């Protein structure tokens, strides 16, 4: 059958040639771009998945940059703190040197005080000048702001806090009271009573050390207590007259504190002996007394740490202090013994309210509280290093309470410096842990996440060159064959002309 107006074979050849050319163009596009998906029509679902993965990769790379920036910020803060630590160590040496009063002239004391003043000024200067791109790091700029501090809170530090909203209450509940090591020596009267010529000794020990004191019959309880208290700085124990006896307690609270009493001599002392004291009530004795004659082996009582919760989280007790360390809240709180919230009374309330502050670092790909890390860096100025109970570092300056020129209380001055060294060291350790365990681990984790996300995206969008090359060769051959076939199909209607002669 021969037709001229409609050449079906030519139409078929044209359609097949168009398809082959389209496939050829697709293969050429993929090989030239290296991508399997160049337009939405190539794979709509794959395009959506790829765009999401690319957005995630971009966010992850930004998070890596944030973590590296955080590491640099902490490095600068650590550098400043390291210098402060060195200065405090030098200050410690100057105090020890200045305590040698019999071997120092007034001029030497004044020279030491000049050095102390210089150190204090340098510490303040480092606190105010250590910065990252103009952002002050050690002047309290990254400390947390608080309000509504309870009267029972003597000291607190906020090392980290994350919360939604404008503020966060920090609630403390005391579930077990803090106690001192306590013993009660019952003498049955206002003075010691034993036969003349006999001797009676007490060896009193505490967490700092021990001393032995001797007494004669007729010594009043007040004299006995005063003798024991003469060595309180050495033993860490204090004595008070209580009725017809003497209460001996550790100066501090907590499980590391204790008092121990050991008797000696040949006296037969009138009185019940040494009582232990009920842990829940320092005024109530418990059990039977160990007679003075049987107390030649030490009678000992240990203190007890406060126990409780902070915002519903079981806290770690240390003396009168409670602390928690979680991803959302890291605080240390020291309580007094009489305030609204105190270490002696079960129950609690709001210790303080955090209103903001801290150094926030975005270390995850999602802008959310879960991917944010917050850390507090307190003010290391001399007026802030120390405690309210002891005093602060600036009180070692000329004309202040603990200056060395006037021969003031150098023991307390040294304890203030010890506390300042502890505070700076603790901050350095916390920042170091943040760098190593938070920033370092985050960078490694994010790096792996970037690799895996890129690999997943590659599987979706990248062209398989082996497959596309094979497809290109196939489509080239088919396209050439279709062109030849079209040529033959177009020549076929000419055969109808032969029928016209």
Fold and architecture overview:
The chain is α+β, with helices and mostly antiparallel strands. It has 3 domains: 8-34 and 464-496; 44-143 and 358-462, f41 fragment of flagellin, N-terminal domain; 182-302, no CATH class. Helix content is 39%, strand content 24%. It is built from 7 helices and 24 strands. The protein has helices spanning 8-33, 44-98, 106-129, 221-229, 232-235, 410-461, 465-491, and strands at 131-132, 135-136, 144-147, 153-161, 168-176, 182-186, 200-206, 210-215, 237-242, 245-250, 258-264, 273-277, 285-290, 299-302, 307-310, 313-314, 316-318, 321-325, 329-335, 347-357, 359-362, 372-375, 386-387, 391-392. Strands 3-20-5-15-16 form a 5-stranded antiparallel β-sheet, with no helix packed on it. The mean pLDDT is 87.
- The share of residues in helices is 25-40%
Pick out the low-confidence regions: none
Domain tally: 3
In CATH terms, what is the fold-level topology of the largest domain? f41 fragment of flagellin, N-terminal domain
Question: How would you sum up the global shape?
Answer: elongated
Total DSSP E strands: 24
Strand content range: 15-25%
In the CATH hierarchy, what is the class of the largest domain?
Mainly Alpha
CA-to-CA gap between the ends? 17 Å
Give me the Rg, rounded. 41 Å
CATH superfamily of the largest domain: f41 fragment of flagellin, N-terminal domain
């Amino acid at each position: 059958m021969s037709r001229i107006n409609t050449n079906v074979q030519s139409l078929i050849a044209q359609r097949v040639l168009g398809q082959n050319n389209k496939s050829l163009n697709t293969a050429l596009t993929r090989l030239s771009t290296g991508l399997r998906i160049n337009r939405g029509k190539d794979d709509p679902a794959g395009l959506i998945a790829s765009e999401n993965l690319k957005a995630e990769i971009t966010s992850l790379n930004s998070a890596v940059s944030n973590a590296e920036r955080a590491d640099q910020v902490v490095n600068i803060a650590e550098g400043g703190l390291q210098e402060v630590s060195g200065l405090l160590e030098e200050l410690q040496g100057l105090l020890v040197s200045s305590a040698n009063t019999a071997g120092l002239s007034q001029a030497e004391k004044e020279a030491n005080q000049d050095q102390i003043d210089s150190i204090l000024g340098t510490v303040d200067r480092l606190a105010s000048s250590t910065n990252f791109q103009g952002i002050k790091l050690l002047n309290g700029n990254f400390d947390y702001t608080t309000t509504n501090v309870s009267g029972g809170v003597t000291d607190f530090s906020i090392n980290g806090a994350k919360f939604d909203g404008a503020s966060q209450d920090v609630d403390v509940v005391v579930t077990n009271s803090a106690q001192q090591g306590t013993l009660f020596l019952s003498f049955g009267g206002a003075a010691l009573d034993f036969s003349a010529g006999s001797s009676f000794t007490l060896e009193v020990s505490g967490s700092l050390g021990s001393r032995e004191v001797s007494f004669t019959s007729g010594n009043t309880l007040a004299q006995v207590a005063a003798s024991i208290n003469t060595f309180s700085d050495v033993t860490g124990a204090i004595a008070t007259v209580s009725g017809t006896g003497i209460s001996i307690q550790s100066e501090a609270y907590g499980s590391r504190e204790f008092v121990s009493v050991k008797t000696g001599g040949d006296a037969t002392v009138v009185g019940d002996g040494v009582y232990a004291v009920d842990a829940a009530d320092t005024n109530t004795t418990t059990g039977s007394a160990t007679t003075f004659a049987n107390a030649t082996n030490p009678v000992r009582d240990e203190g007890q740490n406060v126990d409780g919760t902070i915002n519903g989280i079981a806290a770690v007790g240390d003396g009168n202090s409670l602390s928690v360390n979680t991803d959302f809240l890291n605080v240390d709180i020291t309580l007094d013994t009489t305030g609204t919230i105190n270490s002696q009374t079960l129950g609690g309330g709001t210790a303080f309210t955090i209103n903001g502050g801290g150094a926030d670092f975005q270390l995850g790909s999602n802008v959310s509280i879960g991917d944010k890390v917050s850390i507090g860096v307190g003010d290391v100025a001399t007026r802030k290093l120390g405690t309210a109970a002891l005093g602060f570092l600036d009180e070692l300056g000329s004309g202040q309470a603990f200056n060395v020129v006037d021969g003031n209380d150098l023991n307390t001055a040294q304890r203030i410096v010890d506390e300042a060294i502890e505070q700076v060291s603790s901050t350095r350790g916390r920042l170091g842990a943040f760098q190593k365990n938070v920033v370092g681990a985050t960078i490694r984790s994010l790096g792996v996440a970037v690799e895996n996300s890129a690999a997943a995206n590659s599987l979706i969008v990248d062209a398989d060159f082996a497959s596309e090359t094979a497809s290109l060769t196939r489509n080239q051959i088919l396209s050439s064959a279709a062109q030849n076939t079209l040529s033959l199909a177009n020549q076929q209607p000419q055969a109808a002309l032969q029928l016209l002669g």
